[in-house]
Design goal:
Blueprint lengths: L1 E5 L4 H12 L3 E6 L6 H7 L3 E4 L15 E4 L16 H9 L3 E3 H10 L3 E6 L4 H14 L5 E3 L11 E2 L9 E5 L4 E3 L2 E4 L8 E4 L13 H13 L6 E5 L3 H8 L5 E5 L10 E6 L2 E6 L2 E7 L5 H16 L4 H8 L10 E6 L2 E6 L4 H15 L4 E5 L4 H4 L7 H4 L5 E5 L7 H4 L7 E4 L2 H11 L5 E5 L7 H17 L1
Parallel strand pairs: 1-2, 1-4, 2-3, 4-5, 6-9, 6-12, 7-9, 12-13, 13-14, 19-23, 20-21, 20-23, 21-22
Antiparallel strand pairs: 7-8, 10-11, 15-16, 16-17, 18-19
Helix pairs in contact: 1-2, 5-8, 5-9, 6-7, 8-9, 14-15
């Protein structure tokens, strides 16, 4: 089958492309604003990419896809001049060509007949999914997986996996964002997991959800799809998840994190994030010693261990696997050190994620200065729904630098509680100049965005290198 993927460079659609290619399909795709790491992975797989969404793609010699797989970036929107923003989609509709959403194609062609382990939550989905896949891999279970990033232990974001012990497993990052312009259900309702992690739940995606209750309803739709013999792995600290379960729960529920009054203890941690004892029902069962920092990653580890237990991996074995877990690209990834200044790349884009990322780095570097550089790029952030939380999210940073392009709100005003610690810039070049002027040896520069951020990491390292002789002098 020849499938052509619209929006192929998104993390989910790029992973789907890799799976389709591995399954023997011919895969092509189109997108706009291509950036790594997904573009690199697709090129390495030999998948032909077309820039943009022009309808002229259909006129290419020999171009006759059997199915068009539509990413949720595609819409029926119009440009200011009245022309369609996605003319290829309009042509597909006009000609009556076959199309399907990415999640539905995945469910029908990959997930059917497998034990699906789905990881949902506002934060930590990618890292927890990668942890769980690695635990199962280390146990010899050969899981398939689709992660919204590139796990360093695997080097790819997706693979079909094997059938160790005759039980094909598939680990998937389960996103609550809507499926496609023609299917407004959350992606994860297509996956029908037997093991489902509910990592946390906060308000996000203000462009499609009116309030937290609307997201809670979607999470309960996911809960409804888990069979009686399945398992829900639920964050014990989240009241929003209590409300989800109060709407009905038909499966075993195992909690992780500090149990609250009235809750049955499940998986808990005792100790520091990088060296902690794991308790199961109040009894010690494992010790995790690893290089991954942050209380949030300790919680992610507990969730992954609870999910792995459901398919037969004992906590002690899971802890052993975590000792060699290497995290995911763009999750506190060191991009380089120049003149004593270290530059990190991280995907954090929601205020809570920004705060946990900065706090995790603070625990790691102690009193060293942290320069937080962030791009409010998600639809929620661009709408300004979370702007009042930004000063709180950046409390642990010594300096904060905000890229303001495309915002419909006053970033300087929103960050004013930080006083002189905060600066804003309308373009990446100005932002780089501000950071380099402020940086000094020993500083930790943390760049946070859910996009390419205009290649700021390389530009910062180059500018720091160019200024090193002056700084040293």
């Amino acid at each position: 089958m020849h499938i052509h993927i619209l929006g192929i460079c998104g993390t989910f659609m790029g992973g789907l492309a890799a799976l389709a290619r591995e399954a023997g399909h011919r895969v092509t795709g189109c997108d706009a604003g291509v950036y790594p790491p997904m573009s690199d992975q697709l090129r390495a797989l030999g998948i032909h990419l077309i820039e943009g969404y022009s309808a002229e793609q259909l006129a290419q010699p020999g171009f006759a896809p059997d199915m068009f797989v539509i990413g949720n970036v595609v819409s029926r929107a119009r440009l200011p001049d009245g022309s369609p923003k996605f003319p290829l989609m309009e042509a597909i509709l006009e000609r009556g060509l076959p199309y399907i959403s990415g999640p539905q194609w995945l469910a029908e062609h990959v997930l059917q007949g497998r034990h699906v382990l789905a990881v949902a939550g506002t934060h930590g989905k990618t890292t927890t999914t990668a942890m769980l896949a690695w635990i199962l891999e280390d146990a010899g279970l050969q899981p398939g997986f689709l992660v919204g990033g590139v796990p360093l232990n695997f080097g790819v974001s997706a693979r079909l996996g094997g059938q160790a012990a005759g039980r094909p497993l598939f680990v998937i990052e389960a996103d609550e964002y809507d499926t496609a312009f023609f299917d407004k259900r959350s992606k994860f309702v297509h996956y029908r997991p037997r093991t489902a992690v509910l990592n946390n739940l906060e308000f996000d995606h203000a462009d499609i959800f009116s309030d937290l209750a609307a997201i809670e309803r979607q999470f309960h739709h996911l809960v409804r799809t888990v069979p009686t013999s399945g398992r829900l792995v639920v964050n014990a600290t989240e009241e929003s998840l209590d409300r989800v379960l109060a709407q009905g729960c038909w499966s075993e529920c195992v909690r992780f994190g500090p149990a609250r009054p009235g809750q049955t203890p499940g998986f808990e941690a005792r100790g520091e994030p990088q060296d902690f004892e794991v308790l199961r029902d109040g009894q010690p069962v494992a010790q995790v010693q690893w290089s991954i920092g942050g209380m949030h990653n300790q919680m992610n580890a507990l969730a992954a261990m609870a999910a792995a237990e459901h398919v037969g991996v004992a906590p002690a074995q899971a802890a052993k696997a975590l000792a060699s877990f290497q995290n995911v690209r763009r999750r506190m990834e060191v991009r380089g050190t120049v003149g004593g200044v270290t530059v990190y790349d991280d995907f954090a884009h929601h205020p809570t994620a920004i705060r946990t990322t900065v706090d995790g780095l603070r625990r790691q570097v102690g009193t060293a200065r942290i320069l937080a550089v962030f791009e409010p790029r998600s639809n929620t952030m661009k709408l300004g729904a979370m702007k009042s939380q930004l000063p709180w999210s950046l409390e642990q940073a010594d300096l904060a630098f905000c890229h303001t392009a495309g915002l419909g709100w006053d970033a300087a005003q929103a960050l004013s509680p930080l006083g002189a610690r905060a600066q804003v810039a309308p373009d990446v070049g100005t932002l780089v100049a501000q950071v380099v002027a402020a940086a000094r040896p020993g500083d930790q520069v943390l760049c946070m965005s859910n996009g390419g951020f205009g290649g700021i990491h390389g530009k910062l390292l180059a500018a720091l290198g160019a200024s090193a002789p002056r700084t040293a002098g």
